[in-house]
Amino acid sequence: MRAGSARHARRPVPSLARGVYLPRSADGAAFAMATYGIPLIVVATTGSATLTGVAFALEWLPRLGAFTVAGTLVDRHGIARVFRTACVLRALVVALAALLLAVPGAGVAPVVTVMTLAPLTGFLTEFSYVAAETAGGEASRTAGTRAHRVQSVLLGIDQTAMLAGPLVAGLLLEHGGPVVMLAALAAFSLLAAALAPRSLTAASVAVSSTVGLRTGWRTLRGLPALAWLVGGLVVSNAAVALLQAALPVIVVSELGRSSSQAGLIWSAAALVSLLAITLARRGIDRWGLWPVGATAAAIATGATLAVAHTHTYRGYLLLIAVLMAGEGGLTVVLRTLRSHLIPPDLFASTLAVTILLLLLPYPVAGVLVAAVPTAQLGHAVTAAALLQALGLATAFTRLRTLPVIPTA
Question: Whole-model pTM?
Answer without folding.
Answer: 0.69
